[in-house]
Design brief:
Blueprint: H1 6-17, E1 32-33, E2 45-49, E3 61-66, E4 78-81, E5 87-88, E6 91-97, E7 103-110, E8 117-121, E9 132-134, E10 139-143, E11 147-152, E12 159-164, E13 167-182, E14 194-208, E15 212-223, E16 226-238, E17 243-251, E18 262-276, E19 284-289, E20 295-299, H2 312-320, H3 332-335, E21 346-353, E22 356-362, E23 370-375, E24 381-386, E25 389-395, E26 404-409, E27 415-423, H4 444-454, E28 469-479, H5 485-496, E29 501-502, H6 505-511, H7 527-549, E30 565-566, E31 571-572, H8 588-599, H9 602-617, E32 630-631, E33 643-644, H10 651-660, H11 663-671, H12 678-681, E34 700-703, H13 706-721, H14 726-742, E35 751-755, E36 760-761, H15 780-790, E37 791-792, H16 794-807, H17 811-818, H18 828-842, H19 845-856, E38 870-872, E39 881-883, H20 889-906
Antiparallel strand pairs: 1-37, 2-8, 2-29, 3-7, 4-5, 4-8, 6-7, 9-10, 10-11, 11-12, 12-13, 13-14, 13-18, 14-15, 15-16, 16-17, 17-28, 18-27, 19-20, 19-24, 21-22, 21-26, 22-23, 24-25, 25-28, 26-27, 30-31, 32-33, 34-35, 35-36, 38-39
Helix pairs in contact: 6-8, 7-20, 8-9, 8-20, 10-11, 13-14, 13-15, 14-16, 16-18, 18-19, 18-20, 19-20
């Protein structure tokens, strides 16, 4: 990106300074939201489950549904009916608004339903058993009508008790952290650990029924005077449910320094409950999930397989989890010897890799373990209890986010202890130290040389994990007795794949959300269209298979994909600088979400969901000096020194949030509203600037591409949601749009001086050509399509259309328009979607033709590309599988988005 001459910047800044006295809330004087529309089509919407089986054993589901401008006002009531026309209770609330004030997105929570549901305007039926929240006492008491959870307001107990009727099923729900202060790289040394407990700092009731209640708990893990590792927990309760969901987030704020053995190494991270045990030991049951819906099904005191037979009916009843008849009715050769049958109180299932779990048990602490089986991939589900009630529990993505573990302890006593380990204490400590010593890259010049060989942008002390986060999801059931095998299987399935309602693609398209006209349902009506659809399917399937073949799993890694392939070693370049983890480079997140928006495919949704959870948490800093910035692609997700807005881009989170109303992703988007402040802390162009530059609050250099697209997506989302800072956000959307439009060369100017206090760009006095091939490939086109639809600002529209017209133009055309050409550019295929968008917006047939020309015959993937995989096996590769050595993630993301958008915009104008 070409910098603006310093003299022009200073002059422009001086001009802008005169406007500083005006409040940001006034916005830009000539920029206005698009006018209010007349009432639009508000037909009922058919909602369906992403996977078969409906809600199953899950507590409930929440779905986001978009509406055309003007269809409904924010206070609109909604009703849901099932396929038989029976009313289904629903709780509805607005989550986004059109600029005219009408409802853009509404969220709907249901706690029942198995088939397709119909959502329409109307009064909702009341649930037979409402969710209620009582804040009056020392705890927050949430009742679903079936179970009641008492949530702590302070101290270390998050959930004090879970009762069903008058029976206490679980108690003392708490967070556990094991810290190892030193990591030993060799086979000598003494391992010492210390335990920290989660300490509540704040509790907020975010929703209180009647169908859905949400309670948020924030705090840190504490031992003595030290508090660290912040957590944010949300508990979700639904009407009539015997279960609840936990969304658990930690933010790493410890110290780990490369080359040093001492630091804050996490040895174990978990959620723990106590479970009262009231039944006789032969009526206490253990269930631990294995592969699929497989289960270990045992009793604490087993009476099957003994030398003496208590009776077939008694054995069958114990295996089924039913209360046994009085032992006096058994074969007395068993009854008189019950005291000699061991009681198995402790069980552990550990999943230390994506490919294997082991299960063991012992009678009690101090006695030896015995193997109880094993397998490849455990479901992450367990149960402990008896005929009088029991507690089921599960950790989602259990093996995908290894190392994980489930513990049951003291089931032979009056109180069993259950721990779901998000990081298994049997694994190696969580080692987040940077992976090399810098190799002498002490100056910018040396670091740029390093960039030129490994593609890694290194800088001392920048490869830190301080501030990254990770979110996990857990489910818990309070059962009135040991569930049947069929019910347990349903609970296992809910843990593995949380049921999700969804609006169909046609509703998303009809509502014109996420960029009107940028996506359409798959269409194979012509050979040319069918071929592109085949290519899109090939690419998604290939990446899905590569996740499995290359084992892109693990607590911090799951959800991301790799950047570039090494054709010589037949592996992705997992160990080579910027070619390793992708970290949203060139927007694979957008490719996946647009692929889902047009198809409604559950497999694509789940892939995109995992990526959103990862890229929004792990690849971004949430606290510390770089909060609000993300990290460029690298060997570790936080390794690269390029900490930039383009990776923290709210655009990548919007889709999942609006489709599911997920509060945690909502937090991430809101946190970015003030991320323009980060440009004071770190200059993204610091290593390549040729003119002197010091970040100035009233004259910050911000690019109109990767920088502004990330900023404006956060502001737009806050405005749409009417979040706490929506007025400020709206003003910044409008004023920065106006500022870009007013530049001598519009978007082509490349960057401008931004005033943090006024939220405005200074207008440069000298035209400059500052075009980068990266400017538009981090969501700029998708954001501008939304903004142009939302905001009536013709000058901005023309500035963007001009950028679209001239990026893929000839150098002569660029020079004729701007006085100089754009230099050496790349990514023409990906930019063909800009041609297509501008062609439709301006009615330019020549531009439409160029869109397809650049799509088919510029760079990226060609029709002549292989479009197939080749088999690899030993000794060429570590594991047998397939490769498409011609595939790269940059090209995949760009091809995927260009194909989807070009088909939607110009599918009727294909050559």
């Amino acid at each position: 990106m070409s910098p603006i001459p310093r003299r022009s910047l200073l002059k422009a800044a001086a001009v802008a300074g005169a406007a500083a006295q005006f409040s940001w809330a006034l916005g830009a004087k000539d920029a206005q939201a698009a006018p209010r529309t007349e009432a639009a089509d508000a037909d009922p919407v058919t909602l369906d489950w992403l996977e078969e089986g409906g809600l199953g054993a899950a507590p409930g589901s929440t779905v986001g549904v978009p509406w055309p401008k003007g269809a409904f006002q924010p206070d609109q009531a909604f009703a849901v009916t099932d396929a038989d026309g029976k009313a289904v209770p629903v709780q509805s609330w607005p989550i986004a608004y059109w600029p005219d004030g009408s409802l853009k997105w509404s969220a709907h929570a249901v706690s029942s339903g198995s088939g397709k549901l119909t959502l329409a305007a109307g009064e909702s039926a009341a649930p037979d058993r409402k969710v209620t929240v009582d804040r009056s006492g020392g705890t927050i008491d949430v009742s679903t009508g079936v179970i009641t959870a008492k949530i702590g307001k302070n101290g270390s107990t998050v959930v004090k008790s879970v009762t069903r009727g008058s029976t206490e099923i679980a108690r003392n729900g708490r967070l556990v952290l094991i810290r190892q202060p030193e990591i030993e790289d060799e086979d000598q040394g003494t391992v010492k650990t210390e335990r920290f407990d989660g300490a509540i700092g704040a509790v907020t009731v975010e929703q209180d029924g009647p169908v859905r209640a949400v309670v948020r708990i924030d705090g840190k893990h504490r031992k003595g005077d030290r508090s660290w590792l912040p957590f944010s927990i949300r508990l979700y309760f639904y009407a009539g449910a015997d279960s609840f969901r936990m969304v658990h987030t930690i933010t790493y704020d410890g110290t780990q320094e490369p080359g040093k053995a001492s630091g804050d190494f996490i040895r174990g991270l978990g959620v723990r409950f106590d479970v009262p045990m009231r039944d006789e030991s032969y009526d206490r049951h253990i269930r631990i999930g294995g592969e699929g819906t497989g289960l270990l099904r045992e009793a604490v005191k087993g009476i099957t397989g003994l030398r003496r037979d208590p009776g077939a009916a008694v054995q069958a009843a114990q295996y089924a989890g039913q209360k046994l008849p009085d032992p006096a009715t058994w074969d007395q050769r068993v009854t008189t010897r019950l005291q000699y049958i061991p009681e198995w109180g402790d069980y552990t299932l550990s999943q230390l890799s994506a490919d294997g779990f082991t299960l063991r048990k012992r009678t009690r602490k101090g006695y030896g373990w015995i193997g109880a089986g094993g397998g490849k991939r455990a479901s992450g589900f367990g149960y402990v209890g008896g005929a009088s009630g029991g507690f089921s529990f599960g950790l989602r993505d259990f093996w995908e986010k290894y190392p994980a573990q489930l513990d049951i302890r003291d089931a032979h006593t009056d109180s069993a202890e259950v721990t779901l380990w998000l990081w298994s204490p049997e694994a190696q400590p969580m080692d987040l130290r940077f992976y090399h010593d810098g190799m002498g890259q002490d100056t910018y010049a040396e670091q740029l040389e390093g960039l030129n060989i490994t593609y890694e942008d290194y800088e001392p002390e920048f490869g830190t994990p301080y501030g990254i986060a990770r979110t996990s999801e857990l489910l818990f059931w309070a059962n009135e007795s040991t569930p049947t095998a069929e019910t347990l299987a349903q609970q296992v399935e809910a843990v593995r794949v949380l049921p999700q309602l969804a609006a169909p693609p046609r509703q998303l398209i009809k509502a014109k959300v996420f960029g009107p006209g940028l996506y359409s349902e798959p269409d194979r009506s012509t050979p040319a269209k069918a071929k592109i659809e085949d290519h899109l399917d090939f690419l998604f399937t290939y990446y899905k298979d590569q996740v499995e073949q290359r084992r892109w799993y693990g607590f911090w890694d799951y959800g991301d994909i790799m950047h570039t392939y090494d054709t010589v070693r037949h592996v992705w370049r997992y160990d080579i600088g910027g070619y390793a983890w992708d970290n949203s480079e060139l927007s694979p997140d957008l490719w996946l979400w647009f692929a889902y928006l047009r198809s409604g495919r559950s497999d694509i949704f789940r892939f995109a969901e995992a990526m959103t959870r990862h890229t929004g948490e792990v690849d971004v800093y949430h606290i510390g000096q770089w909060a609000g910035l993300g990290t460029r692609h690298g060997v570790q997700h936080y390794a690269d020194s390029a900490k930039q807005q383009r990776i923290a881009n709210t655009t990548y989170r919007r889709y999942y949030y609006f489709l599911t109303a997920d509060e945690r992703v909502g937090d991430l988007m809101h946190a970015n509203v003030d991320s323009d402040e980060t440009f004071l802390v770190l200059d993204p162009q610091r290593k390549v600037r040729t003119d002197p530059y010091t970040p100035d609050r009233h004259a910050l250099s911000i690019g109109f591409g990767t920088d502004w697209s990330g900023l404006v997506s956060a502001w737009l989302t806050e405005w749409e949601r009417k979040g706490p800072k929506w007025e400020k956000a709206k003003a910044r959307v409008l004023s920065t749009m106006e500022g870009i439009a007013a530049q001598p060369n519009g978007f082509v100017q490349g960057s401008g001086l931004y005033d943090l206090d006024t939220g405005k760009f200074a207008v440069a006095t000298t035209p400059v050509v500052g075009v980068s091939h990266l400017s538009a490939v981090f969501g700029l086109n998708e954001l501008c399509a939304e903004l142009i639809d939302l905001v009536d600002m013709p000058k901005f529209n023309e500035a963007y259309f001009d950028y679209c017209r001239y990026f893929n133009a000839t150098k002569a055309e660029q020079k004729a328009r701007y006085g100089s050409d754009f230099g050496t550019l790349l990514l023409f295929q990906g930019h063909s979607r800009l041609d297509a968008y501008a062609a439709v917006q301006t009615g330019d047939a020549t531009l439409a033709q160029r869109a397809w020309t650049k799509f088919y015959s510029s760079d990226g993937y060609m029709e002549s590309s292989p479009w197939k995989t080749e088999k690899v096996s030993g000794p060429m590769a570590l594991v047998a599988g397939s490769e498409a050595s011609w595939v790269s993630t940059n090209d995949t993301a760009l091809y995927g988005l260009a194909a989807i958008e070009n088909l939607a915009l110009l599918g009727d104008k294909m050559p």
